Amino acid sequence: MDEYALIMRHEDGSKIASPEQMQIWMKQTMDWIGGIAAQNKFVSGTGLLFADAKVVHHNKTVTDGPFGEIKETIGGFITVRAESAEEAAEFAKGCPVLQGEGNTMEVRRIHKGNGAH
User: Fold this and answer.
1) Residues 6+ apart with CB under 8 A from 89
2) Does residue 117 fall inside a structural domain?
3) Predicted TM-score (pTM) of this structure
4) What DSSP designation does 57 have?
5) Is residue 114 part of a domain?
6) Digit-coded pLDDT (tens) for 14-56
7) 73: domain range?
8) pLDDT tens digit sequence for 94-115
9) 55 in a domain, yes or no?
10) Where are the beta strands (DSSP E) in the chain?
11) What is the CATH number of the domain that holds 98?
């Protein structure tokens, strides 16, 4: 069984949810993760904050960011165990982030080996 990263992508990083909406989404997300964990397929996960964010560029310069004017932002990810990318995509379909119009989930198999690919 392989491990897959389910990456939560927000189409518009400038939209800020109310504290009440954030609480609702957090509960929905915990329930979603709980369902995966109940199948013994949850590995780990985390949300990502914008505070103290930096972007390191190819020429080694460092800038503050990313900021909301960027079209798409990554809000977090979880790692799951799955038999296939299709099974991992089925898990991703249940993520509350998909309630936001234009938001997406990216499914990527995690490389397990000695070299980076």
Assistant:
1) 105, 107
2) no
3) 0.82
4) -
5) no
6) 666 778 888 898 899 999 999 999 999 999 998 887 777 888 9
7) 2-109
8) 999 999 888 999 999 999 876 5
9) yes
10) 2-10, 42-47, 54-56, 62-64, 73-82, 104-109
11) 3.30.70.1060
